Amino acid sequence: MNSTNDTVETPETGRAGRTGRFRGLAGIGLVAALAAMAAVTLAAALAKAAGVDFELPDGGGETIPLPGFAVVTGFFSAVGIVIAAALLRWSARPAERFVWTAVSLTAISLVPPVLVGANTATVTALLGLHLVAAVVMIPALARGLRPRRDSGAAGHDSSALKPSRQEG
Fold first, then answer.
1. N or C: at which end does the chain have fewer Cβ atoms within 10 angstroms?
2. What is the mean pLDDT of residues 12-26?
3. Does residue 52 have a pLDDT over 60?
4. Which CA distances in Å does 98 have to 10, 19, 47, 103, 165?
5. DSSP strand pairing (62-63 vs 55-56)
6. How far is CA 127 from CA 98, 107, 118, 158, in A?
7. Are the C-beta atoms of residues 84 and 141 closer than 8 Å to each other?
């Protein structure tokens, strides 16, 4: 017996569907984080081979080791995944809000390399590395936040998921 208040559980409305979206986002985020870590570390290695010393005068003259790039990229990628998951849970438009948030945070992250007092080559390389990570992570997570569209796979009509109204 159907009434006008009947709803059909779909992947977007049911608890199992929401869990599936979170798992999908986590999987996409993990792959993107690993890709960002690899890309940033490779770019840093290429910059180092080209003569960038990555020396931070404000840090006692220490240089940033290559594994440090991977660790920091992985940490902040995880922060991005958590932000994306929170927006998926509490926002009506998670993809749009995530892109705005992530781009804003990326812009803010470009300030410290300029203020650290390093040489021009190091500052330029650090700015570029921030952008490499952003270019990998932001589009991947934004795609993972977009609503899935039913393409009518396997010959199924998506209208079959809509509740029916019976009179009488």
1. C
2. 77
3. yes
4. 24, 19, 30, 8, 37
5. antiparallel
6. 21, 10, 12, 46
7. yes
Assess contact for 134 and 145: CB atoms under 8 A. Answer: no
Distances (CA, A) of 131 to 36, 157, 158: 10, 43, 40
**Tokens linked to 152:** 């009518």
Phi, psi of 62 (to 5 degrees): -75, 150
E runs forming strands in the chain? 55-56, 62-63
Q: How far apart are CA 160 and CA 79, in angstroms?
A: 39
> What tokens does 136 get?
């990998």
Q: What is the largest CA-CA distance in the chain?
A: 82
Pair of tokens at residue 167: 């009179």
Please give the model's pTM, rounded to 2 decimal places.
Answer: 0.78
Q: What is the pLDDT of residues 122-154, one digit of tens each?
A: 999 999 999 999 999 999 999 999 987 754 444
- Quote the crossing angle between the two packed helices 94-109 and 120-145, to the nearest 10°: 170
Instruction: State CA 28 to chain mean position distance.
Output: 8
Place of tokens 């650090």: 126
Q: What residue spans define the domains of the chain?
A: 35-146
CA distance 63 to 164: 66
